């Protein structure tokens, strides 16, 4: 199943892309706002509001990722992390400054909920740190509420909860481990 967003209201629409061939243009109607638009199956270039074309690149998981666990508010998602600060929050059309947008209808999750910082360490690996943005409902690491302005280290497999939404950190593979094989 493929997910697309309405360009007018940002409503998520799901459809089975396997019913169509690469290059085929599919007309869509948003069930929320009745806006009509077209998508091209297998397309690697998208056009922004100004009419400029932008190439869509494959997702880069070289700095690790978070795996959002499926729940009543959202489906399972794997979202990549980048070097530096990654602001994690609820996806919203009007939210600026969020690098890692979780698609959810969870009202207890903030638009800017927490920050995951990815840094390279002296050994050439990556270190992960978590802090609350601050949010109204708080950020939990392994069922422990983070304190105000508290920054904690994350390890591969750590469970983080934001409101009613939970994700698991998937650290990037250590470059040094692969070179010894």
Descriptive notes:
- There is one protein chain.
- The protein has one helix and 17 strands.
- It is mainly beta and 181 residues long.
- The C terminus is likely disordered.
- The chain is globular.
- The longest helix is centred in the last third of the chain and has 5 residues.
Short description:
Helix content is about 5%, strand content about 40%. It has 1 helix and 17 strands. The chain has a 6-stranded antiparallel β-sheet with strand order 8-7-17-16-13-14, with no helix packed on it.
What Rg is obtained from the alpha carbons, in whole angstroms?
18 Å
Number of strands: 17
Indicate the proportion of strand residues. 35-45%
Query: Percent range for helical residues?
Result: under 10%
Q: Look at the helices and sheets and give the structural class.
A: mainly beta
How many strands, which pairing sense, and closed or not: the largest β-sheet? 6 strands, antiparallel
Please, what is the average pLDDT?
A: 86
The residue ranges in which pLDDT falls below 50 over 5 or more consecutive positions are: 177-181
Determine the N-to-C terminus distance. Answer: 37 Å
Tell me the strand order in the biggest sheet. Answer: 8-7-17-16-13-14
Outline: globular
